[in-house]
Every structure is written in C-alpha cells, then in structure tokens.
C-alpha cells in the first residue's frame, strides 16, 4: 500500500466511524432525565417489616408512618429504599422524607382510604392564598412531601390509587368543606424522580410539584375517568427544571398544566415556573393536552413541549390567563403535536379562570409573548384556533408554522378567530386570521420559522 493509498484508507475509516457515530447519536432518544441522578440505595426495608398487610382491608397508615420515621431518623448513608410488595395496601395520607425511594413492586397498590376524616388539613399555599376550590385550608395530599431532597418514587409499575370517587361525589353534591387533596404533592423540594408508576383516580390534581426544582417524571401512567372533576395529570407550579417524558396521561382535566400561583397571592409570592420540558406524552382529555395556566401570576417561561400525541380532546394546546393574574408568560415552544378529534386545536386566551376573592387587582394584566407553535397535525378538529388577547395587553410574538388542523366531517367547522394578538403564521391550514398573516407581522417571527 502506498503512502497515499494508506491516507485514503485511514480517511475512509474515519468517515465511516463518523457516520456510525452520527447514526448512534440519532438513534439515542433525546432526554432531560439526567437533570436528577438516579440513586440506588443499599439500605432496604419492606413495609411488611412494620406490620404492613396488603389485604386491601387493613389500614396501613401506622406502618407507613413508622417505616418513614425509621428512614428519617436512622438516615443511612445513601438513603433507604422502602419496598412495597405485591398486594393492596390501604392507608391514610402520609409524608415522605428526604433520601428515600418508595418502591412499588409489580402488583403493589397503595390505596387511599375513603374515610375523609383521616385527611388532615394543611394551610393554604402562599401563592394561592386559600384552597384552590374553597376558602381556607386544604386537605393534605395522599402522598406528601415538604422541604425534601433526593426522593424517588418508582418500582415495577405498581399503582398509587387515590380512590377519588368519594371526593368527586362530594364535589358534585357540593358537600366539600375544603379543597380536595392532590394525589402526590411535593412542596419546596429538590432532586425528585417519579418513574414507572401508575397513578389512578386522584381526588383532585394528580402530581403537583410546587416550589420545587429538578424534578423528573417519566414512564408514568396517569388515569382517571373523563368525567372526574379537576383531575389534572401533572401541574408543575412555581417550579423550575422539570422534565416530563414518556408518559401516558388520560384524565378528566388538563394532562399537563404549567402554573405559578393565583392573582394577588401569586404576584406577591413571585415565584415563576421555568425550564419545563414535556416530551413524548400521549393521552386524552375533555380539556387540554398541553396547558399553561390559568394560574400564572408568578410567570411562566422557557417551556418546551414536543412529540405529543392526543386523542379525543377538548383543546390540543391551551395557553390561558386572565386579568388580575399579572405575570409574564414567555418563550413557550410547542412542536410535533398530533391530535385526533378535538373541539379546538389551539386556544390562547386572556379570559379564563376564576379569582380567589374580590381583592384581585383588575389592573394586574398578564403579559403573553414569544410563543412558537410548529409542526402540528390534527384530524377531526372542529375549530383550528382561537386566540383572544387582552385589549390593554395584546398577546405578541405568537408564531405559528407548519400547522394543519383538518376539519371534523359532518360537523359545523369554525374558522380561526383572533383578537388583540400579533405575530405571524406560515404554512398554516386552514388559513389563520389576518392578524397573523400580514407580511409585516411575519417579519416579527422571522427568527422562529
Ligand atoms: C406532614 O407534614 C406536614 C408539614 O410538612 C405536617 O403539617 C403534617 O402534620 C404532616 N402530616 C402527617 C400526617 O404526618
Ligand atoms: C424549604 O425547605 C428547606 C429545607 O430543604 C428549608 O430550610 C426552608 O425553610 C423551606 N422553605 C420554605 C419556604 O418552607
Ligand atoms: C403500567 O400499568 C398500566 C396499568 O396499570 C398499563 O396501562 C401500562 O401499560 C403499564 N406500563 C408499562 C410500562 O408496563
Ligand atoms: C423505568 O423504566 C424504564 C424503561 O424500562 C427504564 O429505562 C428506567 O430506568 C426506569 N426508571 C427507573 C427510575 O428505574
Ligand atoms: C427559551 O426556552 C428554551 C427552553 O425551552 C431555552 O433553551 C432558551 O434558552 C430560551 N430562550 C430564551 C431567549 O430565553
Ligand atoms: C410539518 O409537520 C409535520 C407534522 O408534525 C412533520 O411531519 C413535517 O416534517 C413538518 N414539515 C416540515 C417542513 O417541517
């Protein structure tokens, strides 16, 4: 082999290597789950060591409290794993502690008691000023954590069952005294992983990380009947660095709704939701698939949602706020969304949601800007889009591209409707409203397309 031949040979080899590397990089799925390191714990205990009985009848509240007390007070290096073997473990609500893994074996079910007297009241969240449904406190979530660090809820797809019927019926019959409990709420906590778990029949919102950072939720299944009231799937609230991936969510309310506090209380608390990623989520809901709001008083920024598959929806995408909310919603990117059957494909509105009390400031107008929605495909969508900004605070920088939202056959199809909005739209069908199609407007979106 001559020197030249050899160089060509080496060069060729390097090119092949590069191509292989590129192919590998492409095959590797994009993920943000690395923001929280997985921890494997050497110290393991089982709920049965603390008298836990998985017969579906015995109340295990004491067993969970004692097991978690043991984890908290022995604080073993590297934390402790609490194993829940197959079986149905009925229990009242309980608190988690730091440096623990709650591990549900295949066939393990942690089931909430239907005795509502077993649920203690907590004080309102400062950013809400009162319970979300009713004035005053609110019931503690079924699985609760406050001020924690390094908590993992995982296993072999075991189930956390809120047995929400009793609460939904109280809501329907207007006999609730306070705001219903979330299924899992973590407050002011960091380094959280929730993975390979099924969440079922939450009394109210399912997963509620509030004032948290570094939260990974993946391979979760979240289910509740379509007619169950307010059973939002995941509500990152005044939280940052939240990564939601590879999950199936079908509930009675928004699948994922990014929030940050309510009117004057949320404005005073002033904690935004920031750096929220939602990727490869599938599901169905009479309300929204990907939502921001309506409680956004601390602001919401840097949200990325992509590869979302939706069916039988109220709204595919819903960005919502209201007067009195204040707060800035900005830099929201939503792409690669497929939806089959929806009342509205895209809704962005400044007149959604109620107020905590009469003391909200009607001059506290929200700002909504820099929203990029692209590569959205929908079939059987009754109305492609509705954008309703505020007269004194028009929405701006709303950039839409490569969107096709096909009509519903045999139903009255509505056109796009817009008011008080500026931005641009290219390759959008049906043709969107004139507010978004004037050439001057498209210029403002040039960097987005
Ligand atoms: C759980 O923790 C909260 C505050 O972090 C506390 O108020 C409540 O009493 C605890 N509840 C139970 C049932 O231990
Ligand atoms: C948040 O939790 C930390 C402990 O991790 C605690 O020191 C701090 O006081 C808590 N802050 C609030 C507002 O509860
Ligand atoms: C987890 O269990 C649910 C039912 O509880 C099921 O629908 C889902 O497919 C399971 N997920 C995996 C990854 O096995
Ligand atoms: C959950 O299951 C997926 C797929 O099997 C796996 O890659 C992931 O590591 C699991 N999560 C945890 C926290 O073990
Ligand atoms: C917008 O948000 C994305 C995350 O979705 C982030 O990577 C980017 O830096 C943000 N851009 C600005 C201008 O803040
Ligand atoms: C337009 O969006 C569709 C559906 O999400 C996608 O498959 C297609 O690649 C996009 N086209 C362009 C030119 O980006």
UniProtKB/TrEMBL annotation:
This is Probable polygalacturonase. It holds the Pfam family Pect-lyase_RHGA_epim. Keywords: Glycosidase, Hydrolase, Signal. Residues 45-102 form the Rhamnogalacturonase A/B/Epimerase-like pectate lyase domain. GO terms for molecular function: polygalacturonase activity. Residues 1-27 form the signal peptide. It comes from the Eukaryota. InterPro entries: GH28_Enzymes (IPR051801), Glyco_hydro_28 (IPR000743), PbH1 (IPR006626), Pectin_lyas_fold (IPR012334), Pectin_lyase_fold/virulence (IPR011050), RHGA/B-epi-like_pectate_lyase (IPR024535). The keyword Transferase does not apply. It comes from Sesamum indicum (Oriental sesame). GO terms for biological process: carbohydrate metabolic process. Transmembrane segments: none annotated. The keyword Signal applies. Belongs to the glycosyl hydrolase 28 family.
